[in-house]
Design goal:
single chain; alpha+beta; 2 domains; 58% helix; rod-shaped
Length: 401
């Protein structure tokens, strides 16, 4: 729409300039003969104002500008004062094609040439001033409308690109959330189903219990899927620690969990990120190791909250706890660590993961503590404290291993 309006305005200005031709000394036959020249001049102006009309000619823009300059001044020999409406178009093209300060020098030269032609033709000072203002007005209006049209086009393009970028980001968010939230649930579901299948003949009652847990895991996975679709989900670090201890114990891994962090040291978002990191770390233990023990520790000091997950199953090869072949695959395979790093960095934290011994692997996450004042109660109720040693572990809060 903006481009069409600009074209109409250019044609209008051009029509006004052409309307002066019959008033000059040229005959009607000469005016008719020069019509192809006028059409060429209009086409050149459209080409300069709207380069997208002929993209292949952009590389020849300096040549087309020279042709326009020739067409602007040569007809003065025939039409004289009747051709004085054309230099304004040349000044506008100079501003569009050339860079400052060269463009402004050419505009000044064009205006000066108009004044000299007026003096040579014997015009009065008033007519000279009018023609000068008319030339500058034509130049400024055409240049402004051309740039405005480009700006509108670029705005529409940027809006389309922004919408595409938002769509891509939403897809990445969904993929990341599905990976981070469902990976653990599916690993838990797989482990519980495999355990139930092994126990169904020898311990049917325990097999039924494992199937009941698998059903709960499936329901939890369904809830996670819905939360990802809605873009709304919250996670509790305590709940994830409880769940981690349960699934690790079911896989034959001895969990050691210690949480000693002020209740107000974590914002809801920080707690959710730590819960996601813990969930992915436990998933990696199940998928990429044959760990016998796993230590999870969360503590707060120096204005930072630090969570570490350490397992001792790195050196083993063959099949993981979930029966997956780990030969040729590293502990950091997949996109899990990359997703976690992005989440942690967004909160100003750091995440490091890698071997820390012959058969030990450690994942450490640090986040800034929340800037909320916290004051412990006399009985320590303001501090989260969990300790456990496998199935025989103890806890100061309800905790299931």
């Amino acid at each position: 729409m903006a481009k069409a309006i600009t074209m109409v305005v250019i044609c209008g200005f051009f029509g006004v300039a052409v309307s002066y031709l019959p008033r000059g000394d040229a005959s009607s036959a000469e005016v008719t003969a020069v019509l192809p020249l006028l059409v060429l001049l209009l086409c050149l102006q459209m080409l300069h104002s709207f380069p997208s009309l002929a993209p292949r000619l952009i590389r020849y823009r300096y040549l087309t500008l020279g042709v326009q300059a020739l067409i602007t001044y040569a007809p003065f020999l025939v039409f004289g004062e009747a051709w004085l409406g054309m230099p304004g178009f040349l000044a506008a093209s100079a501003l569009i094609i050339l860079r400052a300060p060269l463009s402004w020098v050419l505009v000044g030269a064009t205006v000066l040439s108009v004044q000299m032609i007026h003096l040579l033709l014997g015009f009065s000072l008033g007519e000279l001033a009018y023609s000068t203002v008319s030339t500058l007005l034509t130049c400024v209006v055409l240049y402004s409308l051309s740039k405005l049209s480009d700006l509108v086009t670029e705005t529409h393009r940027s809006r389309a690109e922004l919408a595409h970028l938002v769509l891509v980001q939403e897809r990445l968010r969904s993929a990341r959330d599905l990976h981070d939230l469902l990976g653990y649930s599916l690993c838990s579901l797989t482990l519980q189903c495999e355990l139930a299948s092994r126990l169904i003949d020898t311990h049917p009652e325990r097999a039924r219990n494992e199937l009941a847990k698998a059903l709960e895991s499936a329901r939890g996975a369904l809830t996670d899927v819905r939360s990802v679709a809605e873009g709304l989900h919250s996670m509790s670090l305590d709940s994830e620690a409880t769940s981690a201890a349960s699934i690790l114990a079911a896989a034959g891994v001895r969990p050691t969990i210690s949480m000693d962090v002020p209740a107000e040291s974590l914002t809801d978002r920080s707690e959710m990120v730590l819960a996601i990191v813990l969930r992915e770390a436990v998933t990696n233990v199940l998928r990429h190791s044959r760990a016998a023990s796993c230590a999870i520790r969360v503590e707060s000091s120096g204005g930072r909250v630090r969570m570490s997950v350490v397992n001792d199953g790195l050196s083993h090869r063959g099949f993981s706890l979930l029966g997956e072949d780990r030969v040729g695959s590293g502990h950091l395979g997949g996109s899990g660590i990359g997703n976690l790093t992005a989440r942690v960095n967004a909160l100003g934290g750091t995440l490091t993961a890698g071997p820390c011994g012959d058969d030990t692997y450690r994942l450490v996450t640090e986040l800034p503590a929340a800037s909320l004042s916290w004051r412990a109660t006399a009985d320590g109720a303001g501090t989260r404290t969990m300790t456990g040693q496998g199935a025989a572990g103890t806890s100061t809060r309800p905790f299931v291993f």
